[in-house]
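Protocol step 4 of 6: structure prediction from sequence.
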Amino acid sequence: MEDIREAHRGRNESGPEHSAISDLKQDLEDVANFKGSRAEAWLMMYCKQTQTPYNKLSEEEKHWLMKIAQKSKLAKSHVSQRGKKRK
């Protein structure tokens, strides 16, 4: 793969130096090593994907982003037990 990339370096139709997959993999590793709550890790991943500097967010900005995220179906992790009969 490196030989092909090197042979086509500098051409305008060649691919980018960094792939989106390697960037995503690095972001996931950073979030996996993050010390904090699950919600904070989710917020950090959101910031990485939107290229927003997580460390520069104020506590109020983090609070509001979390309140907005709570409305997302993707951020919810619970399984509804509504209508389930207990034995």
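Step 5 (inspection) to follow. The mean pLDDT is 80.
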